[in-house]
Write a structure and sequence with these properties.
heterodimer, A: 114 residues, mainly beta, 4-stranded antiparallel beta sheet, 11 strands, B: 110 residues, 6-stranded mixed beta sheet, 5-stranded antiparallel beta sheet, 62% strand, globular
């Protein structure tokens, strides 16, 4: 397996534009997590899915953020409209069965909103 | 309040030194504590400690869990420049949230 795959690796966009980040989890993993990492706040959990169903989205900062998982092999995180304070590295991670086990991270998407 | 606190925030040592990184936590219904290493990209898994596995070792790295005092330490002996990274501690909180501490930035000077 190639691991968790995220795209794009880098995204630079203008304030107000829509941004869509993509994630392909490891096949067979039941849990998928979206994290945001900044220098100030470290790694923050935004939302996670279990068997494609969103379980907890309390970490999503605002209504401008939304996430979907239409099937077991694909998830998106969308920001609309984007703002400069959304600039961060966004990680997707997946884990097998129990959420308290090892989570495998993708390489992240570095988002810069100018 | 559930929380994960790591110390120190940063640490600079010379190659060959031994370091100890700390992670304290407060969580209801403890299940596990995980250590990750993050270099320039994604965090990579090091250890998972649970009630039934409170000590782990892999090469020069080892970790113990003290469930009574609610902390874990990560030891690295004979440090090498490749050990330079941010070390993250994570604990699952209620509702299945794997929550990370802010990390310890370790720098190894040749």
């Amino acid at each position: 397996d190639a691991g968790v795959i995220q795209s794009p690796r880098h995204e630079v966009t203008e304030m107000g534009q829509e941004v869509t980040l993509r994630c392909k989890p490891i096949s067979g993993h039941d849990y998928l997590f979206w994290y945001r990492q900044t220098m100030m706040r470290g790694l923050e959990l935004l939302i996670y899915f279990n068997n494609n169903v969103p379980i907890d989205d309390s970490g999503m900062p605002e209504d401008r953020f939304s996430a979907k998982m239409p099937n077991a092999s694909f998830s998106t995180l969308k920001i609309q409209p984007s703002e400069p304070r959304d600039s961060a590295v966004y990680f997707c991670a997946s884990s097998l069965r129990s959420f308290w086990g090892e989570a495998f991270f993708g390489q992240g998407t570095r988002l810069t909103v100018v | 309040e559930d929380k994960v606190v790591q110390s120190p925030l940063s640490l600079v040592v010379h190659e060959g030194d031994t370091v100890t990184l700390n992670c304290s936590y407060e969580v209801t219904n403890f299940r596990s504590l995980l250590w990750y290493k993050q270099e320039k990209k994604a965090p990579t898994f090091l250890f998972m400690l649970t009630s039934s596995g409170i000590e782990k070792k892999s090469g020069r790295l080892s970790s113990i869990l003290d469930k009574k005092e609610l902390f874990s330490i990560l030891n690295i002996t004979a440090t090498q420049t490749g050990d330079s990274a941010v070390y993250l501690c994570a604990v699952p909180f209620g509702n299945e949230k794997l929550t990370f501490g802010t990390g310890t930035r370790l720098t190894i000077i040749p």
